[in-house]
Amino acid sequence: MLEDSVWTNIFRKKEGEQEDILTVLKRIPLFQDLSKKELRQLERILHQRTYRAGEVVFNEGDPGVGMYIIEEGEVRITLGKDQRVLAVLSKGDFFGEMALLLEAPRTASAVASKPSILYGFFQPDLFSILETYPRTGNKILLRLSQMIAERLRRSNIENRELREKLQSIAEKGK
Question: What is the pTM of this model?
Answer without folding.
Answer: 0.78
